Amino acid sequence: MIKIEQLSKQFATTLAVNDLSLHIEKGELFSFLGPNGAGKTTTIKMMVGLMTPSDGRVTMGGFDVEKEPQKAKSIIGYVPDAAFLYQHLTGLELLMMVGQLYSMDTKTIQQEQDMLSERLFMREWLGDRISGYSQGMKQRLAFASAFLHLPEILIIDEPMVGLDPKTARIIKDMLKERSQSGITVFISTHNLNVAEELSDRIAIINRGKLLGLGTVDSFQAVSGEKENLEERFLKIVDEEEQSDGSYTSH
Amino acid sequence: MVSSLIVFGLIFGGYRLFLSGGNFLLRQGELGEVFLDRLFYLGWSIIFYLLVLSNLVTGFSTFYRSPEVAFLLTLPVDNIQIFRIKFIENLVYSSWAILILGIPLTLGYGAIQGLTSWQYALVFVSGILPFLFIATVSAGLLLMLLVYLSRFFKMRTVFIFLGVTFSGLFYLYFSVSQQDTMLSGGLGNFRALGRYLSNMSNTPFPLIPSYWLSRLFMGSEVLDWTERLFFSALFVTTAAMGWEVVSWTAGKAYFRTYQIMEGQGQKSSHKAMSKIFLFKWPGLRTSTKALISKDMVQFLRTPQQWVQFLLMGFFIAVYLINLSRGQLHFEDMAAFWRTAIYIFNFGFTGFILAALTARFVYPMISMEGRSLWMLQMAPFSMKRVFLEKFWFAFFVLFTLTEVVALISNFFLGQQMEISILASGFLFMTSLALISLSLGLGAVYAQFDEANPMKISSGYGGIITVVLSLIYVGLSVTALILVINLYQGNGSGLFIGTIVGFVVALTVLYTWLPLKWGFQAISRYES
Questions:
Q1: CB-closest option in B272, B273, B286 to A100
Q2: pTM for this one?
Q3: What percent of chain A has pLDDT over 70?
Q4: Three-state secondary-structure class, residue B208
Q5: What is the separation, in whole angstroms, between the first and last Cα of chain B?
Q6: Which helix (H) or strand (E) is B85 found in, with range?
Q7: Which of chain A's residues have a Cβ under 8 Å away from the Cβ of B371?
Q8: With contact defined as beta carbons under 8 Å apart, do B466 and B333 qualify?
Q9: Three-state DSSP state, B285
């Protein structure tokens, strides 16, 4: 469903993403792990078409993101790490606008809106202007706008940022449900507990390079010791940072 | 380097333009001379009002909405110091664009008046700089008062009050000073001309800084050095007193009004869903409908936008009312003056369009702000977003200017053929100026800036204004030539060539900026 082939992104002298290749199956819940500045957000922005790769390509549901961006975008739901939403609109208007941008009819939009506002506990404030929302409320609205048009692929950058424990639980449940119903879910996070709890597979990235790929169990098996994902993650990242460091600057 | 050359070129070009225009008026005799003085005074009066208004609008975000202020207020720094830093920032933001237009006007007029270099220096240091300062002081005081009042009234009500007050002052100014005498009185009548000239000699508001500035510019034969010194001292002391008053007021009220504004952000409007989103736009795709609805709702909920739009509408209405009052006299005028007024009217309409496009169309792309990703993620090309904005702006502004042109042509009793010709020119002007503003607005987009006024007064905004004015100037020149040739039974080939030149210019102004703008927005990485 998602195919990333030899993807690279160069910013001036920094190679933010270095020859990254991944293949994610339909219905898989995939976590992309890495410390701050590892290249997760850059990778995601190239996956959804907000950035152009310096090299390589991304295919979403068979559509090349660069060559057929509109077809690719029509099946993607995206939640960015910092959800900037139109401040002067109300939550209801924003969802209506998003639905209309995806050419949905008013009735379907309202049905989805009702369902999502119920599920994400937004009903009370969805009629207020977004300028008055807290970070968590904006994040919930961003999730609702990504779910609204029933995408086949969900791409979420740092899903739990700004969410209270109750909403975080609801979001995790919703992601699992969608994955089980055949929707491919790709999340990037530095929160290892989230990755461990949700994921079918995990990829670890640092300084733009893929350092490891597998299931949570397989990561634990590599060490042959009884260590949790956090310990394994830190070991992999430390080892990479102490290596040659040839990943950047030309 | 290139930017400095462009700015220098603009100032020099503007200077030559004002100098030639001024000399042309002087060649028309006493009336031209008085008219020139009056135009200069009027020009700076309008600049003063615009400066106060632009200071108010930029001050709103500079003093109260800037994240930097929120951070600075947490530091152990005196609030007056923070206010003063922001005051200077606001002064620069709202004044530099006007200076680029004001400097050539000043240099050109000064050259006509025969000012010496030291007189120029005096005028700049003790005239123009305090002039800008006084406008920022006035706006700073007014802004604190308005924010304080917003505790008792909705911000929308406060802005409406502000709009009505400014419009009222403007109308009062025109009524008292009878600036419209030229248009409404028959100039074929010597008694009316005498009354007009006598009216010219009386300045209605000697207490406003525009009057002091126009006095400072008077040549040595009109103004002796003691009087010049008096006006310089008046400027400097007023600015100094203004600084003290605004600092004292800020010490008492700035933090308090800041807290009031913070509270405003938490108020909910309970608007739920605007009917605009549910309106069935005939013949439009659902996604295009969404884009239009979003733009309309955002515009209506941004008082900085619609208050200015209403103000401009008011100025246009005043102009049309003046023309309607002069309707009966135009028939008695000499053909030359009638055509001159008609061409002035066309230029005025073009100028309105240039002002509207630079102010409202130029920031359209930037106003998407950091929410642009939502449109970039939508399953259509950014070209559609771009075209939606183009057609939306075109529909609104072309309709508005065409209505103004048709009504004013009716009042001026212009020939049908020439009215149709002017409508054609106006169609091309609308195409060119809207494309220019939208295209350059995308090339010089400032997605981190939420204030449309600041966006418009940026570097790209100034280039847009100047290029727009050049286009309007060329169109007016072309129209003058075509009318002259038409009325003098000139060659059809010449007329065709001139019209062809305007068409080619329009294609250039339309195609290139749209192409550059579209490329810029397509390449933009959120």
A1: B286
A2: 0.77
A3: 94
A4: coil
A5: 29
A6: helix B79-113
A7: 84-87
A8: no
A9: coil
